[in-house]
Specification:
Elements: E1 2-15, E2 18-23, E3 26-32, H1 39-51, E4 55-56, E5 62-64, H2 66-69, E6 72-77, H3 99-117, E7 122-124, E8 131-148, E9 153-156
Parallel strand pairs: 3-6, 6-7
Antiparallel strand pairs: 1-2, 1-3, 1-8, 4-5, 8-9
Helix pairs in contact: 1-3
Length: about 160
């Protein structure tokens, strides 16, 4: 499972022409589910995302989590995070879990984040829908978190900024 986190000043998502989610300051979480992922990945990554210290404290240091900073979270399902571009110029999608496998894990991630942060602080896109996403990226700060179902452990990649 992979999460791509972006610290934002605000973000919104529309599906089918209607706005389905909006947050103020906080983070957008793009979530990709890999074939074989399960609840262990959801639990580890939800906890890590909620506790990741990528928000500035009073001294301007990234020392606060979204939980500490009181920010919102917008969770967007994005199977394209598992696009395989090793051969040719067209990504392959064989690593990405199909909808029937991925959707319950997406729902579980949203539920877990709502339990960590409060239901009113977590908004979503619409699973499987074509969406329009707008955001004001803050920093910019972007971080990839992943946990592989094959026992690869929890991985974090340094923020880009």
């Amino acid at each position: 499972m992979k999460l791509w986190l972006q610290r934002v000043r605000g973000a919104w998502v529309r599906a089918g022409g209607e706005e389905v989610g909006r947050i103020g300051p906080g983070m957008v979480v793009f979530m990709g589910v890999r074939v074989g992922d399960g609840m262990a990945e959801v639990d580890a990554l939800a906890r890590k995302a909620a506790d990741l210290r990528i928000f500035d404290d009073a001294q301007g240091r990234m020392n606060l989590s979204v939980k500490d900073a009181g920010g919102g979270v917008l969770v967007i399902s994005q199977f394209t995070l598992y696009g395989d571009t090793r051969r040719g110029n067209r990504p392959g999608w064989s690593l990405a879990a199909a909808g029937p496998e991925a959707e319950p894990l997406y729902g579980a991630m949203v539920a877990r984040l709502r339990a960590e942060l409060g239901a009113d602080r977590v908004q979503t896109g619409r699973f499987g829908a074509e969406m329009e996403i707008g955001m004001v990226h803050d920093g910019p700060v972007s971080v990839e978190l992943r946990r592989e179902a094959d026992g690869g452990g929890l991985h974090g990649i340094s923020p880009c900024h």
